[in-house]
Design a protein that fits this description.
Elements (H helix, E strand, L loop, with lengths): L37 H4 L13 E2 L2 E2 L2 E2 L3 E2 L30 H10 L4 H7 L1 H4 L4 H19 L5 H5 L3 H4 L1 H4 L5 H34 L5 H21 L1 H26 L17 H4 L2 H17 L5 H5 L8 H13 L2 H17 L11 H8 L5 H30 L5 H22 L6 H25 L6 H4 L19 H16 L2 E2 L3 E2 L12 H19 L2 E2 L13 E2 L13 H12 L2
Parallel strand pairs: 7-8
Antiparallel strand pairs: 1-4, 2-3, 5-6
Helix pairs in contact: 2-11, 2-15, 3-16, 5-13, 5-15, 5-16, 9-10, 9-18, 9-19, 9-20, 10-18, 10-19, 11-16, 11-18, 13-20, 16-17, 18-19, 20-22, 20-23, 22-23
Length: 595
């Protein structure tokens, strides 16, 4: 309806409080000192809200992300010498001051070590030429990095480690699968690190200072490495980050120095055993050897899958996912430096000291010292010390962290000390009491075969949930509570756990590591080890199939619903137990179900 005219052709201006025809009184508009409204009285560049919110929310890729702290509210990082108190509880937003580059340094520093050089020598041990070995190394590193990098997103999203985040897909109790796998992985790679670095330190000291190479020398070297690693892990994340900042730069410099030391002896034309003149039986082993070498290389990046969340949980939730994923990916691509160093020096050893690359009893460390110029002995010792410290901390820190949640009576520090002592005992028994030093590589490969399907379930679960999680429901196990979105059937999500254990069993059955372990079905692919690729495929297909045939509760998918999966509307049991308010939990769950 047109406004009544004031006689000038313009609508008549109503007085304040005068009702309109529909009975609604216009509100008084506050004026500034110049008679204009505040919005116009103050220039746009100088406008500030009266009470700026300390927190706001953002959405990335359809996922509800935790509040983003105002920069002024961010807590400064604690001193390096302050022992970290956080367990697997959610890291407060104000304390998340890490960056994707910090994640890069930790992941790269944990692999930029002497033990990675040992893995890099395997293509030569398998009889490949340098160029064939380089191709296998590139394949293993790139494939492993692609599998690994999505595992970095769980830390920023949930503020906790990956084992706790797995509650969303394996259930509140099913998350112990991730804890168990991380424990075995940590012990295996911690042992490899200490053994290889200790041997290099003793060997270098023998060549440099005439130190006797006996059990006492090796025991002291192992104890030195293990003790230093344990001290760093007890202090926690910040101290570990500081150590890795130094390790990344110094170890890289030492590897580049090694390239200069061996440049005169390196011959890229090293032919291996699969030459044109090789007999038919030897030629038939080429693809099994090539695939086997690539899988051993691939095991190195995949081994970080259970640990990425330990470090990325300190990254703010507002950080773009592509930056976090990119940092994890590039950290493994950078490991081509130690891998290629190991490959190149192994080819030199095969030419100048072939007895050290005998597949029956390989000794890469001894061979490296045998071909090294005398001036490089000291850098070898430094590389062994720095590398052993860096790898050991990245392996042991996360396991102690997660173990404290499985046994809540133990603090993070107590759990770290306990796991560290047990790992050190395993190292000494394995080195001096049993003959398992060489078979530890088989042990590590088997662990990776079982860990990769778990990672597939996690990655696909993240995709189907559109990156949406309930941080409170993830902490139910750690708080000894019951219920919540991820309770499923008595704390187990049989869809995720079934996809994991079936795929892991299939992978072990088809594993073929010549001379070490051959599964019952390992010969079906003409000697090629297809265990890991097969377990990847089975895990993906089986998990998505189970999600379609047996829908999960609608509540676990959040407000935007499911992707590639069906859902069913069922009530969510309220969180109950120590520290939980039954009434408040019930109201909260009802509200979340209504989203």
């Amino acid at each position: 309806m047109d406004e009544p005219s004031s006689g000038s052709g313009r609508p008549r201006r109503r007085t304040v409080g005068e009702p309109t025809e529909d009975g609604i009184r216009p509100r008084r508009t506050p004026r500034g000192t110049d008679g204009r409204s505040p919005d116009r009285a103050t220039p746009r560049a100088h406008r500030r809200p009266a009470a700026p919110p300390a927190l706001h929310r953002r959405r990335f890729a359809g996922a509800l992300v935790s509040p983003v702290p105002d920069p002024a509210a961010v807590t400064p990082p604690p001193p390096l010498t302050e022992v970290e108190n956080h367990g697997v509880d959610r890291i407060p937003d104000a304390e998340r001051t890490a960056t994707p580059f910090d994640l890069f340094r930790l992941a790269f520093g944990g692999a930029n070590t002497f033990s990675t050089c040992v893995l890099g020598a395997f293509p030569i041990l398998f009889g490949l030429s340098f160029w064939q070995g380089l191709a296998a190394t590139l394949l293993g590193v790139v494939a492993g990095a692609l599998i690994l990098c999505p595992m970095a997103v769980f830390g920023p999203v949930n503020g906790t480690n990956n084992a706790v985040s797995s509650s969303a897909h394996l259930g509140v109790h099913g998350r112990v699968v991730g804890s168990f796998l991380s424990l075995l992985t940590a012990v295996a790679f911690f042992s490899i690190s200490v053994w290889s670095s200790g041997d290099a330190l003793v060997g270098g000291a023998h060549r440099l200072f005439g130190l006797q190479r006996g059990n006492v020398s090796y025991a002291l070297a192992y104890a030195l490495f293990a003790g230093l690693v344990l001290i760093v892990c007890v202090y926690g994340f910040r101290f570990m980050l500081f150590v890795n900042k130094i390790a990344v730069t110094s170890a890289s410099a030492l590897f580049l120095l090694g390239a200069i030391a061996f440049a005169g002896d390196f011959d890229p034309s090293y032919a291996g055993v699969f030459t044109d003149s090789a007999d038919t039986a030897t030629q038939s082993l080429f693809w099994p050897s090539f695939i086997g070498a690539a899988l051993i290389v691939l095991s190195n990046p995949v081994s970080f899958g259970a640990f990425l969340g330990d470090w990325s949980r300190y990254i703010p939730a507002s950080t773009p996912r592509r930056r976090v994923v990119g940092a994890a990916f590039l950290s493994q691509i950078a490991t081509l430096l130690p891998f290629v160093f190991g490959l190149a020096t192994a080819s030199i050893i095969a030419n100048k000291a072939p007895e050290y690359v005998d597949p029956a009893a390989p000794d890469f460390v001894g061979g490296l010292l045998a071909i090294s110029p005398s001036w490089f002995f000291l850098p070898v010792c430094l590389l062994a010390l720095i590398g052993g410290l860096s790898t050991g901390t990245t392996a042991l820190y996360g396991t102690g962290l997660d173990f404290s949640s499985v046994f809540p009576r133990l603090s993070r520090v107590q759990a770290t000390v306990l796991i560290g002592v047990l790992s050190i005992a395993f190292i000494f028994v394995g080195r001096f009491g049993l003959d398992i030093v060489q078979s530890i590589s088989t042990f590590a490969t088997m662990i990776i075969t079982c860990t990769t399907p778990w990672m597939v379930v996690m990655i696909l679960g993240y995709h189907t949930r559109r990156g949406w999680y309930d941080p409170e429901a993830l902490q139910v196990f750690n708080r000894r509570q019951r219920g919540g979105r991820y309770w499923f059937a008595h704390g187990w999500n049989w869809r995720g756990t079934t996809a994991w254990w079936v795929s892991a069993v299939v992978g072990v059955l088809f594993t073929n590591i010549p001379g070490q372990f051959v599964g019952p079905l390992g010969e079906l692919a003409n000697g090629v080890d297809i265990g890991l690729p097969l377990s990847l495929a089975v895990a993906a297909v089986l998990f998505l199939t189970l999600l379609r045939l047996f829908p999960e509760p609608r509540a676990v998918y959040g407000p935007q619903g499911a992707r590639l999966a069906r859902t069913v509307d069922v009530p969510v049991p309220p969180i109950a137990g120590p520290g939980a308010s039954t009434e408040g939990a019930s109201v909260r769950e009802k509200a979340q179900l209504a989203d």
